[in-house]
Write a structure and sequence with these properties.
Blueprint lengths: L5 E5 L2 E5 L5 E3 L6 E3 L3 H10 L3 E3 H8 L3 H13 L3 E6 L2 E6 L3
Antiparallel strand pairs: 1-2, 3-4, 5-7, 6-7
Helix pairs in contact: 1-2, 2-3
């Protein structure tokens, strides 16, 4: 599936989203699955000026808040992002590597 260009109007301005992975059908079960590469989450943070909440990242990637949180935790465990709590929100930053 080719990556699609979409426009996303965010509170702080207009952002060009580089990729948004769609649904794919599993050949064996026939069920639809949605997969998001790590780069979708990392690109979303970069598009939001290097710092973004879980909700903002989920909106940009096109996934649920829960999916975004789970994936960001896995990416954090790889050392690619860090997080910090601000009020009731987690804010994510791409790690310097």
């Amino acid at each position: 599936m080719d990556k699609q260009q979409i426009q996303y109007l965010h509170t702080w301005g207009l952002y060009n989203i580089h990729s948004m992975t769609g649904k794919n059908r599993d050949n064996k079960s026939g069920k639809y699955t949605t997969s998001y590469p790590d780069s979708d989450f990392l690109d979303a943070i970069e598009d939001l000026e290097g710092m973004a909440s879980t909700a903002d990242i989920a909106d940009i990637v096109g996934c649920t808040h829960r999916t975004a949180y789970t994936r960001l935790q896995k990416i954090k465990n790889k050392g690619q992002v860090t997080s910090r709590k601000f009020g009731n929100s987690l804010v994510w930053v791409v790690s310097d590597q």
